[in-house]
Design brief:
- It is a single chain.
- 43% of the residues lie in helices and 18% in strands.
- The chain is of the alpha/beta class.
- It has one domain: HUPs (Rossmann fold), CATH 3.40.50.
- It has a five-stranded parallel sheet with strand order 3-2-1-4-5, sandwiched between helices.
- α3 packs parallel to α4 (142-150).
- It starts with a strand and ends with a strand.
Length: 159
């Protein structure tokens, strides 16, 4: 086994998935473990689209520039938070086991899509049974469900 992909969203199940993947990497003589956190930012929509024709000249351009600056700042904060999340999770599990290489990857993308794309070159995809979504009664979350059906490699779901 050469590469194990782990989806990490910070949920308890994803932390258990990370722990399991690190153990498996050691069993297989130091497989590469790629820990992926993928996120999407909410779409920004102008609240006053119907009244933009009444704005003074140049006001729309200034507002658009401000929205772009705010969006860029929001993306930077989200990316830094995600990097910290996965680094702290790996550290909490004891860091990089001897002989194992851990790659930490943060992607601004739909989580299922990002994991499915990375699964194409992997030997194993490891996920928590459900993440941080709002449907507590589900046995398997939506990302895990999509990956189970569409991954390019075997999938292990950790409960």
């Amino acid at each position: 086994m050469k590469e194990i992909i782990v989806g990490l969203d910070g949920s308890a199940a994803s932390i258990r998935a990370l722990r399991w993947a690190l153990q498996q990497a050691q069993l297989f003589g130091g497989a590469r473990v790629t820990v992926i956190h993928a996120y999407r930012l909410a779409e920004m929509r102008g609240a006053y689209a119907y009244s933009e024709s009444y704005l003074p000249a140049g006001a729309l351009e200034r507002r658009t520039e401000q929205e772009h600056a705010l969006r860029a700042e929001e993306e930077t904060r989200a990316h830094e938070w995600a990097e910290r999340l996965i680094a702290e999770a790996v550290d909490a599990e004891g860091g990089e086991p001897e002989g194992t290489v851990i790659d930490l990857v943060v992607v601004t993308s739909d989580p299922a899509r990002a994991l499915l794309e990375r699964s194409a070159g992997a030997d194993l995809l490891v996920l928590g049974s459900r993440g941080l979504g709002g449907f507590q009664g589900l046995l398997v979350g939506s990302v895990s469900q999509k990956c189970l059906h569409h991954a390019h490699c075997p999938v292990v779901v950790i409960r």
